[in-house]
Design goal:
By secondary structure, the protein is an alpha/beta fold. It folds into two domains: 164 residues, Dimethylsulfoxide Reductase, domain 2; 78 residues, Barwin-like endoglucanases, CATH 2.40.40.20. 27% of the residues lie in helices and 20% in strands. The chain is built from eight helices and twelve strands. The chain has a five-stranded parallel beta sheet, with helices on one face. Strands 7-9-8-12 form a four-stranded mixed beta sheet. It has a three-stranded mixed beta sheet with strand order 10-6-11, with no helix packed on it. Strand 8 and strand 9 form a beta hairpin. The chain is globular.
């Protein structure tokens, strides 16, 4: 899925990818950098970092100039309204202008939890940059709207002078098809209730855990060290719930070394296991 998504990013007449994360504007989206230590270390060397994700990363607090949470599933809408804000003074084509004009900014902003003021603050940093970089994570690869997400990211590349950083980008086959039609942003799906996020484990022991906040514990009706079943559309997992008081929100971490080909955020049913 990774190669399939990245192949949708156009090459045009310039290199799309960069091997470095050294820039005067770094936009990080779609993963938890604390789960990829090599990237986290490189982000520490930058001053103008903006981190947007559906789950807060405590390790980014001292790194990101702006850190904000959007609702799970809203990546397409967030990218669309951000592209409209950041590229407002660029020389865009008629189809892109029509795409921006038809965006329901108010609805997307309200449903995604990314407000106009946040976008304006991000744009202030971007306007003063000369070599912006977009650091992409795996949340985009398996997203149900990944094709249009790639189309929107191409706007950043084409009109915003962005380069894209992903690990191991050498063998990616890039598309020269610049004529793919932008689609209308889809209605945002609801992720009410208990939500789990499949993420890389920091160690093997983590694959036996579900790590969540106090808020998640209240919603899921679990306590620290409870033995549980985590039931999602993809299967059933035997885990122990571990309370992390530094986590925020109602999304818990489901560490797994073997991710599947579906979107990494899933609504889950949490059931206590009988001893």
């Amino acid at each position: 899925m990774r190669e399939s998504f990245l192949s949708l990013l156009e090459s045009g007449d310039k290199d799309t990818y960069t091997d470095t994360i050294s820039s005067d504007f770094v936009l990080v989206m779609g993963f938890m950098p604390s789960r990829q230590k090599s990237i986290l270390k490189r982000l520490e060397e930058n001053r103008s970092v903006v981190y947007l994700s559906a789950i807060e990363d405590k390790n980014m607090t001292g790194i990101a100039q702006i850190q904000s949470r959007y609702e799970a599933g809203s990546e397409e809408g967030v990218l669309a309204i951000m592209a409209k804000e950041l590229l407002s003074n660029s020389h865009i084509d008629t189809r892109t202008k029509d795409f921006f004009d038809n965006l329901d900014d108010g609805y997307i902003s309200a449903e995604s939890n990314i407000g106009e003021e946040e976008l304006e603050e991000i744009n202030k940093i971007y306007k003063n940059s000369t070599k912006p970089i977009l650091v992409l994570g795996h949340d985009f690869y398996n997203h149900p709207r990944r094709e249009n997400i790639a189309n929107i990211i191409n706007l950043f590349i084409r009109y915003g002078n962005f380069k894209v950083f992903v690990q191991d980008n050498k063998d990616i086959l890039q598309s020269n098809d610049t004529d793919r039609q932008l689609q209308e942003v889809a209605q945002l799906d609801s992720f009410d209730g208990s939500v789990v996020y499949t993420c890389p484990p920091l160690n093997r022991d983590e694959e036996e855990l579900l790590i969540g906040s106090q808020q998640f514990a209240l919603v899921a009706k679990v306590k620290d060290n409870d033995d549980i079943f985590v039931i999602t559309e993809n299967g059933e997992y035997r885990r122990k719930f571990v309370l992390d008081r530094e986590l925020k929100g109602t999304i818990a971490l489901l560490p797994s070394a073997n991710g599947d080909e579906s979107y990494y955020y899933k609504i889950a049913k949490i059931i206590k296991r009988e001893n």
